[in-house]
Design goal:
Blueprint (H helix, E strand, L loop, with lengths): L1 H31 L5 E7 L7 E2 L5 E2 L1 H12 L2 E7 L5 H6 L5 E7 L8 E16 L14 E5 L3 H7 L11 E5 L2 H9 L5 E5 H8 L6 E3 L5 E9 L5 H16 L2 H8 L4 H6 L4
Parallel strand pairs: 1-4, 1-5, 7-8, 7-9
Antiparallel strand pairs: 2-3, 5-11, 6-9, 6-10, 6-11
């Protein structure tokens, strides 16, 4: 009877140790699980091919894919919010978005934001109807020019960032590039200025209807904007990650996917 009791006690002890070991292993496996990615909200406007909503209702575009890759490398899960670009500063200030990622140039805004990047270069161009009498930048004098409101294209005109551009006295601004092109297509504007890749999405539908002035209006680096008193460490880490993505070929692969010129977009090369 004593032997049986001792045997049962030993068996119970072994089971208890085994259960503890099993729970311990399970605990170790739980600890080995990768930590959840921290959320971050990105604000941008509708600006194909950089940021737009595709046919399936998902966010897509060059900036979207670059943002996802960069923030995943840093341990963040980005959520995208399409915003009215004119409200970007208030949305950033009140925390409705954590950063602005929308082919955004630092030029003329150096002290307004905490910047990360650059991550890419963009070219601004001038497009006119095929039968237009406009041949050079000088011909834009006394013409109606359409641009997107709040864009670097608008600032090029208002701040005279291109010395070859005459004074534009008739400037029309619109919320989206789609509206900019519509104003040109309907004859309300004589010319439109914007990102080359964005404008070509519209003009390519009319192969013989439009032409581009044979010159690069303006080339500039684009960056990611955080609020001035925001997370400076994150901005610095993002700058380094974006540089690594340009160096390891990730950025070039993404821009090529959307039909952009990798040399011009990644390295700032111009024709």
């Amino acid at each position: 009877m004593l032997k049986r009791s001792i045997s049962m006690l030993i068996t119970a002890s072994v089971l208890a140790v085994s259960a503890a070991m099993f729970c311990g292993c399970g605990g170790e496996r739980a600890q080995d699980t990768e930590p959840a990615l921290k959320p971050i909200i990105i604000g941008s406007d509708d600006y194909e091919p950089y940021n737009y909503i595709d046919a399936d209702g998902n966010f897509a575009g060059v900036d979207v894919e670059l943002a996802v890759e960069a923030f995943h490398r840093l341990g963040y899960e980005p959520t995208f919010r399409q915003i009215d670009w004119g409200l970007k500063d208030s949305l950033l200030a009140n925390g409705e978005v954590d950063c602005l990622w929308g082919s955004f140039s630092m030029t003329g805004r150096e002290d307004r934001y905490n910047w990360a990047g650059p991550y890419m270069y963009t070219q601004r161009v001038v497009v006119v109807p095929a039968d237009s009498e406009i041949e050079t930048l000088e011909d834009l004098a006394e013409k109606c020019v359409a641009v997107q409101a709040g864009s670097i294209s608008e600032e090029i005109i208002l701040k005279g960032l291109n010395p070859n551009l005459p004074e534009i006295t008739d400037l029309s601004t619109f919320s989206t590039m789609g509206e900019v092109f519509t104003s040109l297509r309907k004859g309300y504007a004589d010319a439109a200025i914007g990102h080359e890749s964005s404008l070509r999405l519209y003009t390519d539908e009319y192969p013989d209807g439009y032409r581009y002035l044979n010159m690069n209006m303006y080339s500039d680096a684009v960056r990611v904007a955080f609020k001035p008193d925001g997370d400076a460490v994150l901005a610095e880490k993002l700058t380094q990650t974006l540089l690594e993505m340009r160096e390891d070929g990730t950025t070039a692969a993404i821009v090529k996917k959307y039909g952009l010129d990798a040399e011009k977009s990644v390295n700032g090369g111009t024709e």
